[in-house]
Design goal:
The chain is an all-alpha fold. 63% of the residues lie in helices and 0% in strands.
Length: 189
């Protein structure tokens, strides 16, 4: 299965081969359309001239990195704050995992530990961590024992709740419909 979150082949190809790009895309996935968020890592890599590395992003001059993300078209609606968050994430990955984000899941003993590791990432709360855990399990085959339970509702087989369930244009439509229904139900209460 190949990643299809950006709905652009070159951006999705980067997400499929770069754990850092996937983590950054998930980090950017707030207050903008999913496709825009997951295209962000590709846009950054294009502007840098090569694939992303945690070490380079962590050590990049913050003002220059903000300018890189703010360049038109901007990587995010809030390029300054998101540039800082991406750099915080990269610095954490360098400090805790020697800049190798795949160690987060490769070294996790089980789903519970993997969720804890994801929740420790800067910019990742419980919901984002659970969605990313479900994405790893459903689309990348990262399935330590107890991963579905740790992912909560996002780990349910056959669900259409989040980016973890987007595998093509049709599933994207289903996820959007489910989110709209959840918003309507929340307003009705």
């Amino acid at each position: 299965m190949r990643i299809q979150l950006a709905q652009r082949s070159e951006a999705d190809e980067l997400l499929g081969r770069s754990p850092l790009a996937l983590l950054v895309g998930m980090l950017l996935d707030q207050q903008i359309p999913m496709e825009w968020a997951f295209t962000g890592p590709y846009t950054i890599s294009q502007r840098l001239g090569h694939d992303l590395t945690a070490t380079e992003i962590a050590s990049y001059d913050p003002e220059a990195f903000t300018a890189l993300l703010a360049e038109k078209p901007a990587v995010h609606r809030y390029p300054k704050s998101m540039a800082a968050r991406v750099q915080q994430l990269a610095a954490y990955l360098v400090e805790q995992y020697d800049g190798q984000p795949e160690r987060i899941w490769a070294e996790a003993a089980d789903g519970k530990e993997l969720l804890k590791r994801l929740m420790a990432l800067p910019g990742y709360g419980k919901q984002k961590a659970q969605i990313f855990l479900a994405l790893l399990g459903k689309q990348l085959g990262v399935q330590p024992s107890g991963w579905r339970e740790a992912a909560g509702l996002y780990g349910e087989e056959g669900s259409h709740r989040s980016v973890a369930d987007v595998v093509d244009a049709d599933s994207l439509t289903s996820v959007r419909a489910a989110k709209q229904e959840a918003k309507r139900a929340a307003k009705a209460q």
